[in-house]
From TrEMBL:
Xref: Pfam families: HTH_animal
Segments crossing the lipid bilayer: none
Organism: Rotaria socialis
UniProt protein name: Helix-turn-helix domain-containing protein
Domain Helix-turn-helix: 111-171
Length: 218
C-alpha cells in the first residue's frame, strides 16, 4: 500500500525544516504587524515565538485565541510572566531590565563526551568551546557568567577533562570575542572612568532618540 502524507513533514528530512520556516513566515505576518504596531518585539526560532510587549496578560491571552483561528494546523500556547525559559536561555524582567542566563532543564545531567574516549580531539575541543561561548553570549551579568563558568568547569572535570585543556578552550573563546580584559573577579582590571563612559539605555519606544541623547552626553 502507498500512503500520501497531507499534513506535516518527514522527521529528519533537511527539506522539512525549510518548509516549516516558510510556512511560519506566511502564518506570522499578521502577528508580526500587530506586535510591531503596538511597539513590541517579536522573534521566532522555527516554531518557538518570543514576544516582548506591554500588554495585560488577559489581553495577550485573548489575542492568542484569535491567532489560533488563523490556521487549524497551528495552535499556540503561551508562557507569560515576569520570567520565562526560551529554548536554552532564562529571561527575567527585573524592574524593566532584562536579566538573562543559560537555562538548564530539570532533567539536565552534567555528562559530556569523556575526555578519555577514542573520539577525535577536535570534538573534545568543541565541547568546552561551545559551552563557554554560550555562557558569554547568554549571561547578562558578570555574576551569572561566573556561576555558569564554574558549573561548566566542574562538569568538564567530572568528565576527565584536564584543567589546562579547559583553560585553553576558554582562552579560545576570549580570543574569538576579542576580550583582552581578564574575566576573573580577582584579576579584573579597574575601569578608567576618565577615558570610558558607560550609558544605560533601556529598550523602549524612545530607542530612536538614543543618538541625540548620546551626543548630548558626549
Amino acid at each position: 500500500q502507498y500512503y500520501h502524507q497531507i499534513r506535516g513533514g518527514a522527521m529528519g528530512s533537511p527539506l522539512t525544516l525549510t518548509i516549516a520556516n516558510c510556512y511560519m513566515f506566511f502564518f506570522e505576518r499578521n502577528i508580526v504587524k500587530q506586535i510591531t504596531n503596538a511597539g513590541g518585539l517579536y522573534l521566532r526560532y522555527i516554531d518557538d515565538m518570543f514576544i516582548i510587549i506591554n500588554w495585560p496578560e488577559r489581553h495577550l491571552n485573548k489575542q492568542i485565541d484569535q491567532w489560533n483561528t488563523l490556521d487549524s494546523n497551528i495552535q499556540l500556547k503561551a508562557q507569560a510572566g515576569q520570567s520565562i525559559n526560551f529554548l536554552d536561555i532564562y529571561i527575567e524582567n527585573i524592574n524593566a531590565d532584562l536579566f538573562t542566563k543559560v537555562y538548564h532543564k530539570p532533567s539536565y545531567e552534567p555528562y559530556y563526551l569523556p575526555f578519555n574516549s577514542v573520539h577525535p580531539l577536535h570534538m573534545k575541543k568543541n565541547i568546552p568551546f561551545a559551552m563557554f561561548l554560550r555562557a558569554i553570549r547568554y549571561c547578562s551579568t558578570f555574576k551569572a557568567f561566573l556561576d555558569e563558568r564554574e558549573d561548566l568547569r566542574m562538569a568538564l572535570l567530572l568528565n576527565k577533562y584536564p584543567g589546562k585543556f579547559i583553560d585553553s578552550q576558554f582562552n579560545r573563546v576570549l580570543k574569538k570575542c576579542n576580550i583582552t580584559q581578564s574575566l576573573n573577579k580577582e584579576e579584573k582590571l579597574p575601569t578608567d572612568h576618565y577615558r570610558t563612559m558607560f550609558i544605560h539605555f533601556t529598550y523602549c519606544l524612545n530607542i530612536r532618540t538614543l543618538p541625540t541623547k548620546f551626543h548630548t552626553l558626549w
